[in-house]
Amino acid sequence: MKSAVQISDVTKAFGDVVAVNNISLDIADGEFFSMLGPSGCGKTTTLRLIAGFEQPTIGQISIMGQPVAGVPAYRRPVNTVFQSYALFPHMTVAKNVAFGLEMAKIPQNEIESRTNAALELVQMGSYGSRRPTQLSGGQKQRVALARAIVNQPRVLLLDEPLGALDLKLRKDMQLELKQIQEELGITFIYVTHDQEEAITMSDRIAVMDNGIVAQIGSPKEIYENPVSRFVADFIGETNFIKGKIDSVGETTVLDAQGIHLVGSTSTELKKGQDAVIAIRPEKISIVSAKDAGQSANKSAIAGTVSQTIYIGTDTRYQIELTTGDKIFARLQNLEAGQDVQFNKGDEVSVEWSTQNAQILAE
Amino acid sequence: MALATVPIRNKIRKSFNERALTWLAVGLFMFLYLPIIILIVYSFNDNRFVSVWTGFSTKWYGEVFRDPQVASAFRTSMWLALWSTGIATVFGTLTAIAMERFKFWGKVTYDAILYLPIIIPDIVMALSTLLFFIMVGVSLSRYTVLIAHVAFNIAFVAIIVRARLSDMDSSLEEAAADLGANPWQTFRRVTVPLLLPGIVAGALLAFTLSLDDFVITFFMAGPGSTTLPVYIFSKLRFGVTPEVNAISTLMFLGSTILVIFSLIIQRKT
C-alpha cells in the first residue's frame, strides 16, 4: 500500500521541552488514521509538523513520497481543519470556502461550482452568504471542513475538530466525517484525546504518550491487546491486579499474593518481574463462591461484592478481591425488570478466560 | 433588632455616597468643560472685546474663513497631519506586527521604550529633538516638524494596532497559509483586513494629535511651518480676540469628531 505521510525518526523540541521524541509513523493513502493521547502527548505538534507550521528539530517527513523539509505550509498538499475552526471573520462562508481555490488561481466559474459542491457536501448549501459569526459551533465546524476539502487535498489534517461540540452533535459528526472520508477517499489524520471517538472512526490509531508512540494498531488490536499499562488504562476501562511474573511460556502466569492468574502477553517479560494483569470489566464473569473453580484456560479469584451500580444497559459491580484490589465487572441487563444478579456483601468468584486478560509490565 | 437596622443604615449611607459622588462628577465635568463652553459661546459674540457680550453673531467665523494667514496655517496643519499620519501609520503598523509576532534581540527593551514618547513630557521631547537637529546640522523647516510628528505618532499607532493584533487568533494566519496563501497574500488578505479597524483608529488618533500639537511644533518650527495652534499662539500676543475663539472652536470641533470616529471604530469590532 502507498504511503500518504511518512514520519521518520522525528524529534521536535521547543527549547528544553521535547514535544515529540523520535517518532516514526507510516500512514497509508486513503487511511483514517488517528493520533490519540492526553493533552501534551505531542499529537498536535506532530500534526503541525505535517502541516508545515513547525519544522522538525531532527528527522524527516514525506508527503505522498516527497520529502517536505523546508517546504512552507502554503506549498504542502495538505489542508487542516483547526480546533478553533479559524474561519476568516471578515469573509462570508462562501468566500471562506473559496479562499484556497482563489489562492490556487482556479478559474472563477470553477471556484463557484466547487465551493457550492463542498458546501452542499457538508449540508451548508444555503449558508454561503452568511458570516461565520452568524453560525453555530456545529455549522462553523462544517464550514471549516468544506473549506479544507474543497481544495481536494491528498491528506486532510484534523485537530480535535469535534472538541467544542456537545455530545449528541459530536456523535452525529463522527459518523458524517467517516462517511465523507470514505466518499472522497482522502487520507484523514485525526488528532483527538477522546478514545471512543478514535475507536469508532479510525482504521488505525497511534496512541501517544509523552512525545512517543506507545502503540499503533487497529482499534480492535489496541483495545484487545494493549502493549502497555498506559495504553490499557487510556483506552476504555480496565482493571489492574498487581503481582510478579511466575512463569512465561504459551500463557503467562502472574503471582498475585499467592494466587496464580493466567493471561496472554505480547511483550517480553521475565520471571520475577513486577507486572499487572489487565482485564476489561465486560470480560469478567461473576459466579457465586460455591460454583467457583479454576481451570487451565481460566483464572478465578475470590472476592466480595462491595457495590452495585445500575447504569441502564449494564449493571456495574465493584468487587473487593481477597488480594485487596478493587475491580469492576459489568454484566448486561438483558431482560427487562430483572433483578440485580448479585447483592452487596455476596461472596463471589470473578473469572476470565486467558485470552481476555493481558499481562503487562508494571 | 441590631440585624435589622444595619442594612437600613447602609442603604442611607450608600445613597448619600451616591449623591455626593454624582455631584463630584458633575463638578469635575463643569471644571473641565466650562472654559471650553465659554470659549465657544464667546466665539459668537458680536463685540470686538471678548469679555463683553453684546449679541449673537457669526461674523468672526466669516473673518476666519477670509483670513489668508489662517488659510495658510490651516494648509500647513493639514499637510503635516496627513503626511505624519500616513508615514506613522505604515511604520507603526509594521512595528506592531514585528513586536507581536516575532522574537528578536533586545525586544523587551524596545518594547518598553516604544511607549516612552507617550509618557515623556512634550517639552522634553521637543527640546531633545531640537538639540538633535542642531547637532546633526539640519536647518529647521516644515520637514523637521514632520519628522518630529512622525516620531510621536508611531508610538500611538503601534500601541493601538498591537492591542488589536494580540486579540487576533493567530491560527487565522496559519489557516491562510494552510490554504495556499504565501506570506504576502496572507498579510494582504487576512492580517490587514482584520487589523484595519485598529489601523484606522490609530491613524485617526495620530491625525488628531498632529493637528493639536503645539509644543513640539513650536520648537521645531522653521520658515513655512506655522500651524494653526502656532498661529493662534502668535495672535494671542495681541490679546484674545473673538477670531481666536472662532478658530479654537473649529479646531475643537474637528478634533472631537476625529476622536469620536476613532473610538467608534475601535469599539464596533
CATH architecture verdict of the largest domain in chain A: 3-Layer(aba) Sandwich
Strand content of chain A: 35-45%
For the residues shown, what is the average pLDDT of chain A?
Answer: 90
- The succession of helices and strands of chain B, N to C, reads HHHHHHHHHHHH
CATH topology of chain B: MetI-like fold
Binned strand content of chain B: under 5%
CATH class of chain B: Mainly Alpha
- Mean pLDDT across every amino acid position of chain B: 86
* E-strand count of chain A: 20
- Number of distinct helices of chain B: 12
- Give the count of structural domains of chain B: 1
CATH class of the largest domain in chain A: Alpha Beta
Approximately how much helix is present in the residues of chain A?
Answer: 10-25%
> CATH-wise, what's the superfamily of the largest domain in chain A?
P-loop containing nucleotide triphosphate hydrolases
Poorly predicted regions of chain A are: none
Large-scale geometry of chain B:
globular
CATH homologous superfamily assignment of chain B: MetI-like
How would you summarize this macromolecular structure in one to three sentences?
The complex is a heterodimer of chains A (362) and B (269). Chain A has 362 residues and is an alpha+beta fold.
Key structural traits:
heterodimer; A: 362 residues; alpha+beta; Rossmann fold; OB fold (Dihydrolipoamide Acetyltransferase, E2P); 6-stranded mixed β-sheet; 5-stranded antiparallel β-sheet; 8 helices; 23% helix; B: 269 residues; mainly alpha; MetI-like fold; 12 helices; 80% helix; globular
Report on the architecture of this protein.
The complex is a heterodimer of chains A (362) and B (269). With 362 residues, chain A is an alpha+beta fold. Chain A has two domains: 3-229, Rossmann fold, CATH 3.40.50.300; 239-361, OB fold (Dihydrolipoamide Acetyltransferase, E2P) (Beta Barrel), CATH 2.40.50. Helices cover 23% and strands 37% of the residues of chain A. Chain A is built from eight helices and 20 strands. In chain A, the strands form four sheets. A six-stranded mixed sheet of chain A has the order 6-7-8-3-9-10, with helices on both faces. Chain A has a five-stranded antiparallel sheet with strand order 13-12-11-14-20. In chain A, strands 15-19-16-17-18 form a five-stranded antiparallel sheet, with no helix packed on it. In chain A, α3 packs across α4 (137-149). The model of chain A has no long low-confidence stretch (mean pLDDT 90). With 269 residues, chain B is mainly α. Chain B has a single domain (67-268), classed as MetI-like fold. Chain B contains twelve helices and no strands. The relative contact order of chain B is 0.13. The mean pLDDT of chain B is 86. At the A-B interface, β6 and α2 of A face α8 and α9 of B.
